[in-house]
Amino acid sequence: MSGKIFYRERQKMTDGAKQPRYIIVAIANADLKVYGKHLRMSELKAIAEGIGAEMVALPRGPKHAEDED
Question: 50-56: which pairs have CB atoms within 8 A and are 24 or more residues apart?
Answer without folding.
Answer: 51/2, 51/3, 52/1, 52/2, 52/3, 53/1, 53/2, 53/3, 53/4, 53/5, 53/27, 54/1, 54/3, 54/4, 54/5, 55/4, 55/5, 55/7, 56/4, 56/5, 56/6, 56/7
